[in-house]
Amino acid sequence: MIGFTSSVRAHLRVVLVSLSVMALVVALLPISSSAAGPAATVDQCVNGAVGNPPTLEPCLNGTLVTSFSNWVNGDANASKSHWREGEFIPYRSIITGLDSSSHTLTFHYDTVHGSKHAIDYIGSYDATETTSPTATTFHRNDSNPCFDVLGTGVGSGCTSPGTPPTPASTLTVPPANLLGETTCAGASGSGTTPTQVGGDFKIFAPTASTATLTAASYPALLENVVSGKGQCSTSMTVTFSLSGAAPAAGWTVVLAWGGHIASQQDWGTGNSATSISGSPYHMILDSIDTTGIGSQDRALAASAIFFAPTISTTVDVNSAHLRPVPARIAIRQPTVATLVTSPPDRVLASHSPWASQRLR
């Protein structure tokens, strides 16, 4: 009996040692990141500080004579960004650990903030800061959302700074419910529903992944949802497919889009972006497939948004004499006139091509 017990104990020791060795081996084995499932982040572009003149910088993480790091995973204000009403703030999502199948990214954005219109709809990431190598009065352009993520190798799906990148696939942004936004959470309009400027989602990915955007939509009952006092938000889903043999860590892709800054031209005086204080421009990533993203909320402060009118003078000419008539304000851009500006943090010098005025 004693011999039998000793034999059992010896056998158990062998089993326990074997299990311990197996556990150690498993712990030391490399685990591919794809095993953890997909992950995603959201960045916004900061295009240079407000100033006289504004600092012009591209939406680029890379070097174009000067080194730039302007796709940021954080919030932005007037010390980093300058935008006008009616322009598009560029966003990108870097999505990793993807297998070769269909995937869906879900995000939402603030359409109304403080009962004023904020980001009223979605468009192209390169509608304002374009991919052109030629700068304009207010924008550096040369936008590139994928260089720092995908590189420039053969089949990488991206290009070097200074060369416009070509997306693997594009998909038209569906029409937003702007009529429903008009009075959401106490907001107001001009009496006419704004016309949405057409735009596209664009995906950048390795050639071998054959990335294809397949659908974009607003989930049922998630357009212009009242999310607090004077607050409304709209959700969107974007679906894309990947194929081919995925690398061990899974595919990495970049999905880019833009957020339209609500304008007085569309919504009427006092109802648009420049009438909001604080940081009202929020783009929030919710999930990739069934995986929650966590805290991925990018905000842009209202101090970085400007309205730029001009002043023109009309002269009445008749056969007897030449007499000036009262000046009339014409909404054009840029301005070269002296303007009374408000609030103080948006004041710029007179006779500048970049001046701001909050119209009441």
Can you walk me through this structure?
This protein has four helices and 23 strands. By secondary structure, it is mainly β. The chain folds into two domains: 274 residues, no CATH class; 53 residues, no CATH class. Strands 7, 8, 12, 13, 14, 16, 17 and 18 form an eight-stranded antiparallel β-sheet that branches. Strands 1, 4, 6, 9, 10, 11 and 15 form a seven-stranded antiparallel β-sheet that branches. A hairpin with a 2-residue loop joins strand 16 and strand 17. The longest helix is centred in the first third of the chain and has 27 residues. It starts with a helix and ends in a 30-residue tail after the last strand. The N terminus and C terminus are likely disordered.
Fraction of residues in H or I helices: 10-25%
The sequence of SSEs as H and E is HEEEEEEEEEHEHEEEEEHEEEEEEEE
Q: What is the gyration radius calculated from CA atoms? A: 27 Å
Number of helices: 4
Mean of residue pLDDT values: 82
Major sheet description: 8 strands, antiparallel
Low-pLDDT stretches are: 1-35, 310-314, 327-360
Number-wise, the strands total 23
* Structural domains: how many: 2
Rounded to the nearest angstrom, the distance between the terminal CA atoms is 99 Å
- What is the overall shape? globular
Strand content: 25-35%
Q: Structural class of the secondary structure composition?
A: mainly beta
